[in-house]
Write a structure and sequence with these properties.
Largest sheet: 6 strands, mixed
Strand order of the largest sheet: 1-6-5-2-3-4
Bound molecules: flavin-adenine dinucleotide
Oligomer: single chain
Shape: globular
Helix content: 40-55%
Structural class: alpha/beta
CATH topology of the largest domain: Rossmann fold
Order of helices and strands: HEEHEHEHEHEHHHHHHHHHHHHHHHH
Radius of gyration: 23 Å
Length: 463
């Protein structure tokens, strides 16, 4: 029997997980409950998950079973059928993997915050994975206020914890890079599995059945206007297949070819990272272990650029609007907002890929059809929305709307940072010109000069 005072002590003991990953969100004390509860929200995986490992350790120390909870709400911000299907594919696998470890995953069709508050009534301790976007942080903070057990947040979706990398919003990759590099060795460590001692499989809770995905999806009241994609299937096993393929056949050429939309040199990790179906730390360690050319360039994107994006949404309250931009970018866009535009398209025309530019239309079509636009084309695509919209404000809204609606990896910190970059965020001023002002410009000649861009157009035609 573990004494209550000992239990309190143990919550603060991080075991072999660095304590910088762990934050307690309220001042409650551990109760004598029926189980330890893990609210899985962002890190939707059964492995390489610091939050899961932490909570297994706590359940074993408290000699209690561990219950994992996932709540599915119909109105997750900007989510639609495409996203829900990919997520449920992943959750189905995660449920099976947890079951193999004697851990019950209770999935319910309800608002996660309300569901977790109810289940916490019989828990001794609640653990949740860390979130970065404002509304997801609010969910956790609200829950922490409502429940009468400690709520411990464990960070597992960045290699270097966001507040460890920097305590403020960073200006650019060049300012966050040295800070992350200083910390990196501490965090590039394997996450070894810890097994649960007390099975929770016998718990009998009503759960939302996801064995038959079609009927599960049809019972949700969600936006069905964007179809699910065949190009990517959700889940950790699928993520690892893409990673294997990348490490064995593409990583070596990543440095030279990852920008070329007519070639296939990307990792395809972004949808899996977005849904937490694979750990960025796992991907980084595997790439490092593989070694050779391409590794540095890949880790620059996976760690520095990605963690800069997370720094951005974590510290900027304005990540959904032009107000997030540095002063020089806001001023120059304002100064040029009345410049005459050679072409002006409405949101609907952009959405239907009805511009005069076949490269832009192909990029839009690639995103709509496959759920993933090539990374280089995303920059061109966003820049042209700025150039061909009535105002920069309208352009910003259009870019976020389309990105978040159609990209499988949309609604992610990377998406907010990517769109903001097209308008000058994390960049410097360039030669002043019409419409863009000093914001960096991109044009079709560049695509033609650097790549066999017509073969990209042909590839998209065959989708
Ligand atoms: C306008 C615009 C919108 C974007 N929208 C999104 C989005 O919604 N979701 C999203 O995940 N990424 C977005 N990006 C960033 C980037 O284009 C994608 O992460 C990348 O194309 C995903 O494909 P991949 O995983 O095959 O990339 P790889 O090149 O194989 O990169 C591996 C990983 O590194 C990270 N990464 C790569 N490029 C960037 C970058 N520029 N910024 C931050 N992290 C990066 C991603 O996590 C990516 O999965 C956007 C970029 C722009 C310019």
């Amino acid at each position: 029997m573990v004494m209550r005072s000992e239990k309190v002590k143990k919550v603060n003991d991080a075991g072999d997980i660095r304590e910088e990953r762990i934050t307690t969100l309220n001042d409650e004390e551990v109760k004598d409950g029926n189980y330890v509860l893990y609210w899985m929200q962002r890190a939707q995986r059964a492995e390489y998950n610091h939050a899961l490992k932490y909570v297994v350790e706590k359940a074993n120390e408290l000699d209690e079973p561990l219950l994992v909870y996932f709540g599915i709400t119909d109105d997750f911000k900007e989510g639609n059928l495409r996203h829900y299907r990919f997520m449920l594919e992943g959750l189905k696998e995660t449920k099976k993997k947890l079951k193999e470890r004697d851990i019950k995953l209770v999935i319910r069709h309800e608002h996660p915050k309300e569901g977790v508050i109810e289940l916490a009534d019989e828990a001794s301790l609640l653990v949740v994975d860390k979130a970065y976007l404002d509304f997801l942080r609010d969910w956790r903070e609200d829950a922490a206020e409502e429940v009468n057990v400690p709520v411990v947040e464990v960070e597992t979706d960045l290699v270097v914890p966001v507040e460890e990398a920097s305590s403020k919003e960073e200006y650019a990759a060049r300012t966050i890079r040295p800070k992350i590099e200083d910390e990196l060795d501490k965090y590039m460590k394997e996450v070894k599995k810890r097994e649960l001692e007390n099975s929770s499989l016998e718990f009998d809770f009503d759960t939302f059945d996801i064995d038959d995905l079609d009927s599960a999806l049809s019972s949700l009241d969600i936006d069905e206007s964007v179809k699910a994609v065949e190009s990517f299937e959700g889940g950790t096993a699928e993520a690892k297949k893409h990673l294997e393929e990348f490490l064995n056949h593409k990583l070596g050429g990543y440095g030279d070819h990852s920008n070329d939309p007519s070639k296939d040199y990307l990792s395809n990790m972004s949808p899996y990272l977005h849904f937490g179906q694979i750990s960025p730390l796992y991907v980084a360690l595997k790439a490092k272990e593989k070694g050779g050319p391409g590794v540095d360039e890949f880790l620059e994107q996976l760690i520095i650029r990605r963690e800069l994006a997370y720094n951005f949404v974590y510290y900027s309250e304005d990540y959904r609007s032009l107000a997030c931009l540095p002063d020089w970018a806001q001023e120059t866009l304002e100064k040029h907002s009345d410049d005459e535009r050679e072409y002006v398209y409405s949101r609907e025309e952009f959405e239907e890929a009805e511009t005069h530019d076949k490269y832009w239309n192909s990029a839009q079509k690639e995103m709509v059809e496959t759920g993933k636009m090539h990374g280089y084309m995303r920059m061109y695509w966003g820049k042209k929305i700025l150039e061909w919209s009535e105002t920069p404000e309208e352009a910003y809204e259009t870019a976020l709307y389309l990105n978040n609606k159609y990209e499988l990896d949309g609604r992610d910190p990377n998406g907010f940072a990517g769109v903001a970059w097209c308008f000058g965020k994390h960049d410097q001023g360039w030669k002043e010109r019409e419409v863009y002002g000093k914001v960096r410009y991109m044009n079709a000649n560049g695509l033609e000069r650097k790549f066999d861009i017509d073969s990209y157009v042909k590839l998209v035609e065959y989708l």
